[in-house]
């Protein structure tokens, strides 16, 4: 389990145990970090992650609060964090994605229009320098959707979209917890786009495989550690 995951688990346990209730303010950062045996950096990352999925509410100049959700809804939100820790089905979808999507990408290198390939650059540039995780994942889904459509095979495109959508939560959690994931994702996306623009199906297929395998490897390791 990563340091960030351990910090998240510690805060979650305080909520589950009733020590922190909806609407409660978290203790001061140095006090909570010392009590949980965590570094302030790892605690800060955990708070950031939990605020992204609306379990915590960070109020500038005031403090950090447990959201005022009903306890059952709060636990549903926590399910977002642990769903793929408990169920390795997501790995099966990622394996399927690793088989299907590179083939669609190779076809797109031969069939996608020049304008549509150029538009991928605009899509990637639209993220700016500091995208949120939600923005990154939405951009990621749209990037791969457009390439699948560019394969000019509606059946294959439909398969890609169906399989890819089932891995969205895992990809979001990776974006929250894995260091450098934004830079890595964008670099791999640009490499795929450049292979498409150069009309190099084998190179496009290879980059798509590397890109998807990286997500799969991280999820597999996360499940093993969990």
From TrEMBL:
CDD domains the UniProt entry points to: WHTH_GntR
Lineage: superkingdom: Bacteria
Alphabetized InterPro entries for the sequence: GntR_C, TF_FadR/GntR_C, Tscrpt_reg_HTH_GntR, WH-like_DNA-bd_sf, WH_DNA-bd_sf
Pfam families in alphabetical order: FCD, GntR
Alphabetical keyword list: DNA-binding, Transcription, Transcription regulation
GO molecular function, one term: DNA-binding transcription factor activity
Protein name in UniProt: DNA-binding transcriptional regulator, FadR family
SUPFAM superfamilies: GntR ligand-binding domain-like, Winged helix' DNA-binding domain
Ranges for domain HTH gntR-type: 1-69
